[in-house]
Amino acid sequence: MNVVTETLLDWRDSLIERLPEGKWAGSLATVIVIYLVLAIGFGMYWSIAPDHFNPSETAAEYAQSAGGAPVTGSVTTVALIGVAETLLEKPGGYLHNDRFPPGLWLDNMPNWEYGALIQVRDLARAMREVHSRSQSQSTEDPDLAMAEPRFNFNSNSWILPSSESQYRDGLDYLHAYLGRLSDVNAPNAQFYARADNLRYWLATVNTRLGSLSQRLSASVGRSRLNTDLAGDESATQATGAPSEMMVRTPWLEIDDVFFEARGTSWALIHFLKAAEADFAEVLKKKNARVSLRQIIRELEGTQDTMWSPMILNGTGFGLFANHSLVMASYISRANAAIIDLRDLLSQG
Question: For residue 280, what are the contacts with CB-CB under 8 A and spacing of at least 6?
């Protein structure tokens, strides 16, 4: 009899002692132990991050099945669809709103999902507001106008309606847009690969990564000078704030921020690879393709295998690692490269 079997039997015997006496006590204890073992096993399996996919290859397969060829914007749209579908169809499905074990016990994967979901929302908004419109006074695409609010639905809603049902509706509208985008007889569906459109979306990515970098760095408490109004002597704010403050991520939230950052980076890798394909001519003209690839390279570093069973929070130069600071390093470098890329895109 091995150690695992002995442990399971000990669990069962301990439960039997706590249950009221009766013929059914042993059977009930055995069922509970089996359920717990299965829940733990499924929880571990569901916590494995999904594999990456190639947006360009997926777009080519979709176009081939439709009897055509990829057009400008199809790779970005397919990347958005692919990331959103992964959230719903990966092992365990969408876990962020689970109310029962084992999903209820998990927090790493739900936070990973939330990071990816934020990027889905940002790209869906960019596609609705700028990518599909030729000018600020032009009308928005009807399918994208319906898809974007679906992805912004409450991520924690379990039922009536569930988050999954709203996100699936958003996917249906994205599929409809992709079909019209590839149809030569439907010129009202467009994707405009312009430098200013790419800069618009990258500005949002810039803000998101900057916030994540600060939250990751705050895993170790650090005194921070207040620079909120720096650079503008006439600037004001709603309420006063101290000139110096202690910034620290609560201990119980450190792993949450870490896995949110991993989910964010996972989604961005796909979206940036799609942008490299759809905005190829713009990047070539600006000689900025290598800059985009460097951003992808930095974000790919955030996806390295975690060998530690838990997120360590050692001091910066201490004996133990600080996984949050390592993650912050990758994201900060990617964010700095995005700033450089936006500058390149703004140049004539």
Answer: 289
pTM: 0.87
Q: Between these two residues, 313 and 126, which has the higher pLDDT value?
A: 126
- CA dist 258 and 1 (Å) reads 40
Count the residues in the chain: 348
Q: Give dist(CA 108, CA 257) in Å, integer.
A: 9
Query: Cβ of 70: how many Cβ atoms within 10 Å?
Result: 21
Q: Where are the domains of the chain?
A: 1-46, 47-226+242-346
**Cβ(201)–Cβ(282) under 8 Å?**
no
Q: Which two tokens stand for residue 266?
A: 């996972």
Q: Fill in the amino acid letter for 240.
A: G
Identify the CA nearest to 87 among candidates 95, 98, 79: 95
Q: Where are the beta strands (DSSP E) in the chain?
A: 222-225, 244-247
Cα distance between residue 205 and residue 212, in whole Å? 11
Residue 246 in this model has a pLDDT that exceeds 60: no
